[in-house]
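so my prof wants the structure for this chain in the tokens format not the other one, which i didnt know existed until like an hour ago. anyway here's the sequence
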Amino acid sequence: MRQWLLIMILFSTLMTSGCGYNTLQSTDEHIKASWAEVLNQYKRRADLVPNLVNVVKGFAAQEKDVLLGITHARSKVGSIQATPELINDPEAFSKFQNAQGELSSALSRLLVVTENYPELKSDANFRDLQAQLEGTENRITVARNRYIKAVQEYNIVVRSFPSNLTAMLFGFQTKPSFTVENEHEISSAPQVDFNTVSPVGK
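here's what i got, hopefully its the right format
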């Protein structure tokens, strides 16, 4: 009886490894790690917003609509529970993506407005925030690209035969990625240059 059990275990191991189970597991873990980095960089950007708004307010308090717009966009981003499980829910993922897009647009409008305030552009705190925001936007682009690649590799395994049978058996499903509409933002980081500002996320 014990020998038969060992044979069954060995057979099951060979079947799952040969049908893509291990690949599904490893690619799924890669997605989780990539997604965690995306969230980390988006959080870094959101954390910069209050300081950026305060500095701009000190020089351009009359730009109330723009300041309120970016504050509202950041609040919307913060209201979404960006948990690891979010990548398994296409609808929730889309809401998250849209909220981040709104924040990108609000940041762009704010940066355009700063062109009208030379004293603001020369402020040391503002220049420091410029460097931090530029670096964060670049890291967001890198993290998003890594996530996209990880999802592509995983989804290919989920849809390909015979690993698709294993995926169905163990409940592995395709995961959402960033949409084509944002491909330009994904492929090139926003230019955060206060001398030649390039709007993003129109």
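also thought this was worth mentioning. Residues 24-187 form a domain with the de novo design (two linked rop proteins) fold (CATH 1.20.1440.20).
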